[in-house]
From TrEMBL:
SUPFAM superfamilies: Periplasmic binding protein-like II. The keyword Signal applies. It comes from Tolypothrix tenuis PCC 7101. Keywords: Signal, Sugar transport, Transport. Belongs to the bacterial solute-binding protein 1 family. Pfam families: SBP_bac_1 (PF01547). GO terms for molecular function: maltose binding. The keyword Zinc does not apply. This is Sugar transport system, sugar-binding protein. InterPro entries: SBP. GO terms for biological process: maltodextrin transmembrane transport; maltose transport. One of its GO terms (cellular component) is ATP-binding cassette (ABC) transporter complex, substrate-binding subunit-containing.
Amino acid sequence: MRNSWFKFWGLIIAIAIAIISCHSLTLPSASTRVTVKLSGWGGNPVEQKLLQQVLKDFEAQHPKIKVKYEVISDQYMDVIKTRLVGEAAPDVFYLDALEAPFFMSQNVLEPLNTYITPEFDLADFEPNLLNSFKYQNQIYGFPKDYSTLSLFYNKKAFAEAGLSNPPSTWEELRNYSEKLTGKINKYGFGEIPELARQAYKIKAFGGQIINQNDYATFASEPGLQGLQLVIDQYQKDRSSAQKSDVGTNSGSEMFGQSKVAMVIEGNWAIPYLQETFPKLEFATAEIPTINGKNNTMVFTVAYVMNKQAKHKAEAWELISYLTGKQGMQKWTGKGFALPTRKSVAEKLGYDKDPLRSPFVSGVSYATPWQAGKYPAAIVNNFDNQFISALLGQQPLKQAMVRAQTAANKQIQAME
């Protein structure tokens, strides 16, 4: 009887072990699946859907990693900063190049040099983009996509004004603007008087936004020379307009509504114009040279790792997939954003695309959109005073000296 009892329990235990073994083969235990938290800001619905698909593909290839993706819709950078202080930040998150210098200097990001393998192919990244996320010989992020700025022009307006090619120099652009003003379009050129769109003009004559100590230097004589081009075109030629002059909300809208015949915009304007203004016939070209030099801006965002991330190996798996050749091709394949890897851009044919090739051409010589560790002080003071000068409320030099002085006082107080 006792032997039968033991045999019975032995059989029950054996069956239980068999069931548990089978269960573990078919359904991985929740405890063995690591969750990596990813945060970013919301893009348009098509982009959001695209990212969700890329993340699903990642999970399919990495069954032991689950990605918890969170969209932070409002005050993104403030939320991230607060969470980093409270040690509740995501494992991986978007970081704009503009904000990168401050974050990299604060010891809150994980340096990624030691994670890089030969297969990751570091040399494939555009150097000008990667450099925005380097600090003290360490790489803190890998850029997921980018856009430079290019000239958009209305083909119908050009034809009516007898213009067959886009302008190649800034002098030509001003000349074209005068010819185009008052024809099909009210104005020849749409101006956006923000530092993000003016920094390359400051650099064209040898000026700089900041010095090596992160203090503002944009009010120097070379910097003013580039900015004077904008003032002269707006006040003397009267051939340019800003968005508020024509009742629109952006450069793309100014152009799409045919209020201006030319505008300088990013790659993001292409799908917007094609969807919102399908009858508009437009083309793109590299920004005309200023002072004999090619220049444009480049805007980029990287995936970075929180230094306090609990699952760093898995966080790196996610970053390396999203910025690797396969993940990047999926993410940038629809043309909403441009790939930061040269091989992916070549594979997708963007360097030969009639509308996108000027953006790709500009990446090697573009000015990265960065303004030191304290960008808000630089950008806000510049934008407030430059618009005042554009409207003729004060001379350009006076406006820029005021902006520079105020910015540097704020920076000094923050150090």
